[in-house]
Model the fold of this input.
Amino acid sequence: MPEILAKSLIRDVPDFPKEGVLFKDITPVLQHPAAFAEAVDLLAQDARAKGAEAVVGIESRGFIFGTPIALQLGVPFAPARKLGKLPYERISEEYALEYGTNTVEMHVDAVSPGSRVYVVDDLLATGGTAAATARLVERLGATVCGFGFLVELLFLEGRKNLLQYPIHALIDY
Done:
């Protein structure tokens, strides 16, 4: 695939959020309408090709990409949120962090049983949050038809946590 405009805009921020980390800052992509639109269009094409009937965005930047994808496809959007952020009845999945655990939740009526769900986030790192989100979608009776990411950090090997799913990343580092 030819390089997309967004790749030239993502900036490296050293030592954020902690020393030794080189953070990939996507906010310049969001500030550039043509680059943002191109990324959304490419992910929407992938979701459409996979037969997506709903889109789930992972908090928080997955909301930024997932919502316009769902609108392009004319399908529902549902958020996967951090613990305690959803007001209605919800289900949750815990996942491992380097030190400790975290939790992701969805409303019990977030996706329709039997539907094909495309899960979106800005970046695939270790895959822990994405895998936990897939488990939530499946517990709700739906099928994950694929994952879409703007960026994949290959050295963190997040795909290993998502082997059973198709993954589409627009940019890799």
Observations:
- Residues 40 and 104 are 24 Å apart (CA to CA).
- Helices lie at 5-9, 27-30, 33-49, 61-73, 128-139.
